[in-house]
Specification:
With 257 residues, this protein is α/β, with parallel strands linked by helices. It has a single domain, classed as Rossmann fold (3-Layer(aba) Sandwich), CATH 3.40.50.720. 38% of the residues lie in helices and 18% in strands. It contains nine helices and eleven strands. The strands form three sheets. A six-stranded parallel β-sheet has the order 2-1-3-4-5-9, sandwiched between helices. A three-stranded mixed β-sheet has the order 6-7-11, covered by helices on one side. A two-stranded antiparallel ribbon has the order 8-10. Strand 3, helix 3 and strand 4 form a beta-alpha-beta unit.
């Protein structure tokens, strides 16, 4: 008999329809928790301050908010405006609703790769740490799904231009499990980095996806210039210390997907 059953929590998931967010909602429900999904497609305004009163009401009785929101841009200005507005609105609504834990998904090595998007994520981490609500940040490596996304970044006819990048990809569902683990506990600040089981070149993963899915894409690997490109190639976006590691390999994920 389990004498210490897991308490039932109410978790709000920002970005609940996204790559990781929908897994977070599923994992939380599988563990018996109540889920409050937050997403634009569900009619929840996370960006505009006008939507904050409604957001506050949605967060009444919520134990923790898990933020998995994202934006597709490399512009630091656009990314900072997006993440800044969402984080500001979530933190204000959480404080007003009495939510005690904000869990943020971020990226391994993000402070060491000088791109606009990564700088915006660093700013978001700092905003969360200074926001007055108990917080935890999980930095994870790129998801397995990223290998298919890069095929669409730069397309010239049948050719996909993919940046040379060393990654240690992890299954999105394992990231979701780690986020729910954090949400079930007390705020811990910076959590240990989460990565997958293998260190691999991203252009090779993109080729495997194209072959497996019959996409017919010809992948051309290109080194990005400058410090950002060097650090993407040298493994800066992979963990350097001990921490949790996923068990789902890229090939196992690809076969299952």
């Amino acid at each position: 008999m389990n004498r210490n059953p897991r308490p039932v929590l109410t978790l709000a998931v920002a970005g609940a329809t996204g790559v990781v967010g929908h897994h977070v909602a599923e994992v939380a429900r599988e563990r018996g928790h109540r889920v409050v999904p937050l997403a634009r497609s569900l009619g929840v305004d996370l960006l505009g301050e006008a939507g904050r009163p409604g957001l506050t009401e949605l967060l009444r009785g919520v134990d923790a908010v898990v933020d998995t929101t994202n934006v597709q841009t490399q512009s630091q200005r656009v990314a900072e405006a997006h993440f800044g507005a969402i984080t500001r609105n979530l933190l204000a609504a959480e404080a007003a609703a009495g939510v005690g834990h904000h869990v943020l998904l971020s990226i391994v090595g993000v402070e060491d790769v000088p791109t606009g998007y990564y700088r915006a994520k660093v700013a978001q981490e700092r905003q969360v740490a200074a926001g007055g609500v108990g917080w935890s940040v999980l930095r994870a490596t790129q998801f397995h799904e990223f290998a298919e996304q890069v095929l669409g970044f730069v397309r010239v006819g049948p050719v996909s231009v993919v940046p040379r990048m060393t990654s240690q990809p992890v299954a999105a569902v394992e990231v979701a499990q780690a986020l729910v683990d954090l949400a079930e506990g007390a705020p811990c600040g910076q959590a240990p980095d989460l990565a997958g089981p293998e260190r691999l070149p991203m252009h090779d993963l993109a080729r495997r996806v194209s072959r497996s899915r019959g996409l017919g894409r010809r992948v051309v690997a290109v080194p990005l210039p400058g410090a950002a490109g060097r650090r993407m190639r040298d493994g800066t976006l992979c963990p350097t210390g001990a921490g949790p590691r996923g068990t789902v390999t890229f090939d196992a994920w690809l076969a299952a997907a």
